[in-house]
Amino acid sequence: MKKKLLVITWVPIYKWDYIRYGFDKLSKKYSLIIFDLSCFLFKEFKVKELYKKKDKIKCIEFHDLNEIIKAIKKTHVDLIINLTGISQKHPIYQKLLEKKVNIISFIDFKLSNYFYFPKNIILYLKFFLKIFLNFHKKNSNDFAIVAGDNLLNRLNSIGKNIIYSHSINYDLAIKKKYNKNGKKNRKIACYIDSGFGFHPDFKLSRGINKKFNVNTFANKLNIFFKKLNLIGYDVYFLAYPKIPKKNQRIYKNCKIIYYKTLEYIKNSDLVITTSSSTIEYAIIFKKKILKIFTKEIKSYPKNMDEYNGFKNFFSKNVINLDLKYKNEEIKKKIILPNKKYLEYISKFVKHPKSNNTSFSKIIKKLIN
After folding, report:
1. I need a labelling partner for 285 at 20 to 30 A (CA). Which of 144, 172, 276, 291 fits?
2. Which stretches of the chain drop beneath a pLDDT of 70?
3. Three-state secondary structure string covering the chain
4. Taking a C-beta distance cutoff of 8 angstroms, is the pair 349, 284 a contact?
5. Are 197 and 233 in contact (CB under 8 A)?
C-alpha cells in the first residue's frame, strides 16, 4: 500500500504550484491528499468565484474549524506538508502535531524594506525574544525547509528542526531541462507579471484589488513596451498563472506567455519587474534587470515594501513610468550582473548551507 502525504494549503493549488513543489513526482510513489483551507481562513470572501477552474488541482475544501480538526484526526497519513503559514499555536497546527508524523513547512521570506534601518531593529528584538521564549522548546517532528539566510527566515524557523535549502523558484531551476538557445534576430525583454488588479491571492490576503487602476497601469506599460520595441527588443509578457487570459488582453506591444516564465527568462537579454519573487530567475541566470514603477502600485503596501527593499539593496534608481523618460534613461537604469547578485542569492534564494537537494528528495527522506 502506498504511503500517504497530506498537503495543507491556504489557497487553491494549481498545476503550476503542483509541479514547482515536486508533487507531480511524489504522486507517482505516494498518495497525495490535499486540504484546502481557503474557504475557512477567508470566510468574508467568495473564494470559489475568485479562482479560475482551469488547471486547478482537485482537493478537499473546508468551511469550518471543527470539520478540519475532525478530518485531520481521522485521516491516516505518513507525512504532512504545511503550506498555510499558520502559527505553531494555532489549533489546527496543534492537531497536526498530535499526529506524531513529520510536518514540513517552507520558510522563504523575500526581500523587503524590513531588512533596513530602522525597521530591522524591531525584527532583531523579536528574534532574540523568540529565542529566549523557545529555548529547549522544539517538537521532534516539526521541520522547516529554510531558503535564504536572512533575519525573517531565522525568526520564523525558531522552534523547528531546520533543513537548510533553497526557494521554490530555485528548486524548479535545478530540476528543469533546457533547450539550447536558437538564433535571435532581435533582443528579448521579459516582463514579469505580478497580477496587479486581478491576483486572487492578493484579494484574500490584502483585499485591495479593486483599488488598483488596471487601465491606467496598462496604458503606461503599453507605452513603455512600445519604447522597448523601438530600441530593438521583442517584449514577452510573462503572465501570472492564476490570472485568466481574458484579463491580460489589455496589454499591448508584447506577446502574452503562460507557464514558461523560467524558460523565457533564461533566454532573455533583459528582465523587467515591478514586484515579483520570480525575479530570482534573472539573478540566478545573471540577466540584466530593469525595475519599473507607477503610482498605481501604491495600492499594494506589501509590494511597495518589496519595491523599496529592492531599491535599497541594489542602490539603483528605477524607471518611473508616471514621468517623461527618454530611451537613454532606460539604458542607464538597467542593473548589470554584479556581486550583489551573489549576496541576493545567499540571503533570499539559496542558503549557504544548502546541499542542492530537491524538495521531492527532502520530502522522501522525511516520510515515516
Report:
1. 144
2. 113, 117, 135-136, 178-184, 206-210, 368
3. CCCEEEEEECCCCEHHHHHHCCHHHHCCCCEEEEEECHHHHCCCCCHHHHCCCCCECCCEECCCHHHHHHHHHHCCCCEEEEECCCCCCCHHHHHHHCCCCCEEEEECCCCCHHHCCCHHHHHHHHHHHHHHHCCCCCCCCEEEEECCCCHHHHHHCCCCEEEECECHHHHHHHHCCCCCCCCCCCEEEEEECCCCCCCHHHHHHCCCHHHCCHHHHHHHHHHHHHHHHHCCEEEEEECCCCCCHHHHCCCCCCEEECCCHHHHHHCCCEEEECCCCCHHHHHHCCCCEEEEECHHHHHCHHHHHHHHHHHHHHCCCCEECCCCCCHHHHHHCCECCCHHHHHHHHHHHECCCCCCCCHHHHHHHHCC
4. yes
5. no
The contacts of residue 136 (CB under 8 Å, 6+ apart) are none
From 109, 148, 103, 131, select the one nearest 353 (Cα to Cα). Answer: 148
d(CA 221, CA 215): 10
Burial zone of 199 (CB within 10 Å; 0-12 exposed, 13-18 middle, 19+ buried):
buried
d(CA 216, CA 295): 10
Tell me the sheet residues that pair with 235: 189
Cell of 79: 507525512
What pLDDT is stored for residue 300 in this prediction? 87
Return the C-alpha cell found at 8.
495543507
**What does the pLDDT read at residue 325?**
92
Residue with cell 522547516: 144
